[in-house]
Request: fold
Amino acid sequence: MGLGRIGIIAVFAVLLLAPAVIAAPQEVNVGTYVLNIGEYDVAKGSYKADFYLWFEWTGSKSPENFEIMNGRIEEKKLIYDETGYLFYRIHANLYDKVNVKDYPLDKQLISIKIEDELLSADEMAYVPLDNDSGYSEDMDLSGWEISGAKSEVRNTYYKNFDDRYSRYTYSIELARPISAFYRMLIPILFIGLSTWLCFFIPLHKLDEKLILGGGTLISAIAFHIYLTDPLPSIGYLTLADKYMISLYALILPVLVSMIIVERLVVGQKHQAAEHINTTYAILSLFMPVVTFLVLNYLF
Reply:
């Protein structure tokens, strides 16, 4: 009786576990090697990619019916087609979301996202070949440096179909060189210094003060437009915006002081005019710093 009961329990256990074994998704190893990235447009988040993509698997389900989820394949060439192995060279137009909040010190991700058109995550699961994947050291991304790369797999759930699909993603992180920050900072410092020098022009030379002050304001606005022109339309302040607004916070006391000093000079109140000029000269040094700290705190 003991052995009979054990046998019955074993049979039931096999029957209960069999569906789970049968339902286990077939694993497919995926590797990527990026040859080149071109025409990267940060304003649109679009770019062209030339890369190798390969699949390795053991099983009856072929991963040949894959699609790129963040773009469109322009050309697909099957180089190797063997049992359990497919190797492609692909040219594709891709896009990714951009975040330029830290511009010009921002980092962006460009990626290749793959899903199977037909097989859900219950039928097939991608496994990244991290050690075999990579990118060509000869890639030339003007204005960008490659700071890292990674591959990952996660399941994407589609609510309308109540189903999940395995998604493979190979990402390359791009960073602007530090020289991009200096190209922004140096003109800002020169414009700010030129503006502040207005306080050292003799008070009776108001025309010269107005010309220099107005000229620096126009220069600041023009430079701000130049800085933000290559960026997408966004609803938040970038690091460059914060620096420029801080520069405006320096220019504003200068222009205000000119108006007050002019009225005092016309009224023959030269001592008061000197006092206002000195006070605003000191105030204008603190205004950019305070403005930048407040902007960083609020945004």
The chain has two domains: 23-176, 179-298. The two ends are 75 Å apart (CA to CA).
